[in-house]
Write a sequence for this structure.
């Protein structure tokens, strides 16, 4: 069965638009779990524009499902520019202290609105491999955010990572436009086949929604999807519990 990990970043973004603790992040995590979510994902960026450092610790203290923290492992400490918000300790320092179930390494930069590309392991493979080994020594399952590029996926296997997370924006975009969707979907099928050949587990995420998810969920070997933006938007219309249930149905669960 494919696990659904709900990304809470957009819930935190709503909270941060005001000087308030509402929406409460642990409360909404529990609502997702009660509705059937298999895990919770957060992506704490150094500017803490959505998920904050304190949220990560609060979630770690209460979660009884898998906790996935994703982010750029090269990001160092950062002084907070928000009154009452603690400093960002650096991604690896945060993960070392919390020790989540899974750590997804993502090569995003400060100027990106959202993650928009996978690792280039021809360039960064040695550095990433060192980080992967450190995380695994801490007992943390590792995943690398990757484009559906067979060559890069083979290089990912050489780092020792447990899994990859396929960056699915190109699939979502082609599905929405109806242009070249079979060809693009085939790229992800091939990427998953290569990952399986290399002994890698397969996660996926980015712009997956209730319309495009059922087809993507047919990819052999898919273990987990991480969904936040579209799930949050759907929750405004449908309610959070009903939305989590709908995404589980889209994954083929009843």
């Amino acid at each position: 069965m494919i696990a659904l990990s709900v990304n809470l970043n957009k819930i935190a973004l709503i909270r941060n638009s005001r000087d308030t603790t509402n929406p409460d992040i642990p409360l909404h995590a529990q609502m997702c779990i009660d509705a059937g979510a298999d895990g919770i994902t957060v992506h704490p960026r150094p500017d803490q524009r959505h998920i904050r450092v304190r949220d990560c610790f609060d979630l770690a203290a209460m979660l009884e499902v898998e906790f996935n923290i994703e982010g750029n492992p090269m990001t160092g400490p950062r002084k907070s520019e928000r009154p009452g918000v603690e400093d960002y300790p650096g991604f690896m320092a945060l993960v070392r202290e919390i020790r989540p179930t899974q750590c997804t390494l993502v090569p995003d930069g400060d100027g990106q609105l959202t993650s928009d590309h996978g690792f280039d392991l021809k360039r960064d493979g040695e550095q990433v491999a060192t980080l992967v080994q450190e995380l695994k020594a801490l007992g943390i399952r590792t995943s690398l955010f990757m484009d559906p590029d067979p060559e890069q996926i083979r290089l990912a296997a050489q780092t020792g990572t447990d899994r990859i997370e396929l960056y699915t924006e190109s699939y979502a975009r082609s599905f929405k436009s109806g242009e070249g969707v079979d060809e693009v979907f085939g790229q992800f099928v091939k990427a998953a086949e290569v990952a399986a050949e290399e002994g890698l587990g397969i996660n996926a995420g980015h712009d997956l929604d209730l319309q495009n998810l059922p087809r993507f969920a047919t990819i052999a070997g898919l273990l987990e999807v991480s969904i936040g933006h579209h799930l949050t938007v759907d929750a405004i219309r449908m309610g959070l519990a009903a939305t989590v249930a709908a995404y589980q149905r889209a994954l083929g669960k009843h």
